[in-house]
Each structure stands twice: as C-alpha cells, then as structure tokens.
Specification:
It comes from Lactiplantibacillus brownii. It is built from five helices and 23 strands. By secondary structure, the chain is α+β, with helices and mostly antiparallel strands. The longest helix has 16 residues.
C-alpha cells in the first residue's frame, strides 16, 4: 500500500503539483465527530520548480487508489527548505458564522440550508422527520446551529446524527454510518489500548436557578437523587451515584422566561446528561482506511473483557491516521 495520488492545485488556475515524491515524514489524516473539520497535515520538501503552496489551494489525497481527502490549505509554514501544511475538508466552512431565524423545520432541512449558505456540495444520506421548534440563532456558527439541532433530535428520537465529508461532498449521516464486521483487538489490528473512566465533570444533583426581578429573591428547581421532595426529580440511578461518588452538584440558570414546571424539566434533562462517568477508550491499530469517525467496529480485548467490557460493536468518534511505510492509526471509541 502507498500514496497513489497526492496533489496541490490552485483554485483560480490550472496549475497542479504532484507532491507524492516530496513528502517528508508522516501524512496525518484526522476525522472527528465533535463538530470539527477533517484535516490533513503533512510536510513537503521545497524543489526548484516554482512551487509554493498558497492558502486556499486544493489538496487531493488517495491511499492505495482510495479517495480519502479533498480539502484546502489553511495554514503553512516554511522552514529549512520544507513546507509544513495543514489542510481542512469542506466541513471547515461550517465554522462560518451567521444570524438566522429558523422556522419549525427538521434537522435535514437545516443541514441543507446551512450547507447551501456555506457554498459546499452536500447531500442527506440519512434524514430525520422530527420537527424542531422555531428558534433564533444570532451570531452562531453553522456548526453550532447543527449541533443544537442534532442534540435535540437525538433526545427526541434516540438516533445520533452527524456530518462528515465524503471526499468532496459533505453528508448528513446517522451513526453508525457503516457497522463494520471488522474485529479490532488482541489478535487483530490492535497494538495498544488506553482505557479511562472519570467523574471529574459528572454531577448527580442539578439545580436550576431563576432570579426573581420583582422581589430580588430566587426560585430553584432541583433534580437530585438524594431526596424526594416536591422540588426533586429522583431516579434510582442517581441515588446510586450519590451513594458511590458523594454529592456532586451543578447549578445552571433557567432558560429565559421559564416557569417552575419548565425549570424542573430542564433540571431533569440536564441530570440525565451530567449523571454519568466519562469513559474514554483509545486504541493504536494497524491502519485501515475504513476506520474513520462515524463507523463502528467490533472490539475484542481480553484485558478489557476482564473489567466488564466484552466483545461488542463500538462507534469510532475520532480517528487519526498516519500514512508512511508503517501505516498506523489511533482511534477513539464511544463506550
């Protein structure tokens, strides 16, 4: 396996440079579900052919004749006769900011709207029919607008949607995009793993606070597993976490003009998000182009099975590929 296409070309002219033989070190390709553009980072040696990368140049990269990356130069450094380049795929233009008034609409409709406004080629692979409430998005990035729509849709439908660049086209997809039969583990692809559980950012008591402008006082709605008073929303899971972790409290201001019932609902919803430990699983593996964010693979690691994480299909949330003589990748997985 090898780099089979690697070019840098101008947007406004027909000039294109083949840089396959100029690469110095790793070519690093990253995909991430966390509302980030895919990136390609690489170094190329300067040659006396009038070639200098320009910001905005088009970068195309194939590995083993598979189209992997289409994007644009956003940053380059020049030191010691070498250019160090960072290119981003078309998702980068979803960082553009705008002010929009959204009518009642679906995630699919909002995705099509912002992608069109960002002037990027796009398509809906997996759409949603769930209706989102009308809202005003003032001075927010297109990524922010999509994140809000995706999170609300997931809460309502249980389905996780995400946006990803499929070479030169940005797509709205549902996770997992591809549920691969590939097994990653002790005897297949994996060379190292790191597993972590943390409650650093967890909370098992949530208080929603609203200031009363007329009296100067406050009213609060509390979601807690410690008590069962009329201001409390309790679940057995939350009580269990307080017993095991101690009281971890989080306070947030009420949404604008919320009444007390809405404050309790807000507290309950936030408790569901906060009342959990963060689990991180990172693997170092032999490279495979199908191991990208949004796909799922089977994990089979005996050491992890011994602590309760048996063989199962897990979603890849971030993947960083290193293309060189020893093609490797690091993948992060949702547990």
């Amino acid at each position: 396996m090898a780099i089979t296409t690697f070019t840098i070309g101008r947007r406004t002219t027909s000039d294109v440079w083949d840089v396959r033989e100029l690469v110095a070190g790793d070519v690093v390709w990253t995909t991430d579900l966390n509302y980030s553009a895919g990136s390609l980072e690489f170094d190329v040696i300067e040659v006396d052919e009038g070639f200098t990368p320009h910001n905005g140049d088009i970068v195309k990269f194939y590995w083993d004749n598979v189209q992997l990356f289409y994007g644009f130069v956003f940053d380059f450094k020049y030191t010691n006769e070498k250019f160090s380049v960072i290119a981003y795929d078309k998702l980068r233009y979803l960082k553009n900011q705008d002010s929009l008034v959204w009518p009642v609409s679906t995630l699919s409709q909002r995705f099509n709207k912002v992608a069109t406004m960002a002037s990027i080629s796009h398509r809906v692979v997996n759409g949603s029919n769930h209706k989102l409430a009308a809202e005003v998005a003032d001075g927010k990035s297109y990524f922010d607008m999509l994140q809000s729509a995706i999170e609300i849709t997931e809460q309502a439908t249980g389905s996780l949607y995400f946006v990803m660049a499929n070479y030169d086209k940005v797509e709205l997809r549902k996770a997992p995009y591809k549920a691969l039969t590939l097994v990653v583990g002790d005897k297949s692809l994996m060379t190292k793993f790191d597993y972590e559980r943390s409650i650093e950012d967890a909370a098992n008591v949530v208080r929603i606070v609203r200031s009363d402008d007329t009296t100067g006082g406050e009213k609060t709605a509390t979601a807690s597993s410690a008590t069962t008073t009329k201001l409390t929303i309790a679940t057995s899971g939350s009580k269990h976490s307080i017993d095991n972790w101690g009281r971890l409290q989080y306070v947030e201001q009420a949404k604008d003009k919320s009444n007390f019932a809405q404050m309790k609902t807000q507290a309950e919803q936030l408790l569901k998000v906060k009342n959990k430990q963060t689990t991180t699983l990172k693997l170092t593996v032999i490279g495979d182009p199908s191991l990208v964010a949004g796909n799922a693979v089977y994990l089979r690691v005996q050491s992890l099975k011994d602590i309760g994480l048996g063989t199962k299909s897990l979603l890849i949330t971030k993947a960083t590929h290193h293309f060189n003589a020893d093609y490797t990748a690091e993948i992060e997985m949702k547990v």
